[in-house]
Amino acid sequence: VGSIFLLYCCKMPSITHVVLAQLAILLASLRNGLATPNSFTPMTFVSPATPIIVQTSKPSSTPDLSTLAKIQAIKTGYGMYTPLSPASQKRSALLSKKKGSGSKKSNKIQVKMLKYVEGTGKIGDVVMVAPAFYENKLKKSGSAVMVTDEEVASNAAEKTAAKGKELKIAEDLKLKLNDFTLSLSKKAGPDGHLFGAIGKKLIFSELQKKFPSTPLNGKQIRIISLTGEDGSDLGKHDIKMIGDYEALIAIQSDINAKIKVIVTAD
User: How many CA atoms lie within 13 Å of 243's alpha carbon, on the beta-carbon side?
Assistant: First the structure.
């Protein structure tokens, strides 16, 4: 009877009520000698009733003992596990916090390279590195310095201004060199063959004398090619005959100028 009452309190399905009720009646009948196993009435299936949810208009502020017992049963999974104590819950929270902080990546710092370091960057690069790597290697070797976002922005603005200035100088030089004619004379034979060749180095040297105030001493400025009157490229060969030639001069990576070179017999 106690089991039936407990199951009833826990709101078991109606079919379970019927089974337990039949068993209780059978046990009582056998104990009192009022019935035998043959007098047992077969059980009939009773469809489960639709549960009805009853909500009070104003719940009680203090739950009764049966309600507290149900809440506790739900918390413990009807006895399948034991809830953690407050101390255990606090200890579990601390462990979870430590685990999360351990998996978090360390913050990196921003540095400007003063030397080339393989796998890190070249001079002038702004890169992000681990603090320990900066302190133990880059700082000690003088390979980098820490920079702020403001310093990076300032350096970028300076580079942009310098690049714009260089571009203007290159464009001005292109205007001066384009269609300029450089005349050179050298001893030659009756067939026009020069006694000594004229190479790119000599042409460039004479060009610098003609334009002493221009930045023709830069390493990036050079003669790319020489072509003859017929448009053929001399390649790596020097000028060995009198005639008209054309020299292509690279001022910057994307800025070129063309000059005419006239070679006559001295």
Answer: 17
For residue 5, is pLDDT > 80? no
pLDDT at position 206 over 80: yes
Domain ranges of the chain: 1-44+70-79, 109-150, 171-265
R_g (Cα) of the chain, nearest Å: 49
User: Is the separation of the CB atoms in 48 and 14 below 8 Å?
Assistant: yes
Q: What is the pTM of this model?
A: 0.47
How many other CB atoms are found less than 10 A from the CB of residue 216?
19
CATH architecture of 171-265: Roll (3.10)
Q: Give the distance, in angstroms, between the CA of residue 49 and the centroid of all CA atoms in the same chain.
A: 60
Q: Is 142's pLDDT higher than 90? A: yes
Topology annotation, domain 109-150: Ribosomal Protein L9; domain 1 (3.40.5)
Report the residue count for the chain: 266
DSSP state of 134: I
Strand ranges in the chain using DSSP code E only, listed in sequence order = 109-113, 126-129, 144-146, 180-186, 193-198, 222-227, 239-241, 243-252, 255-265
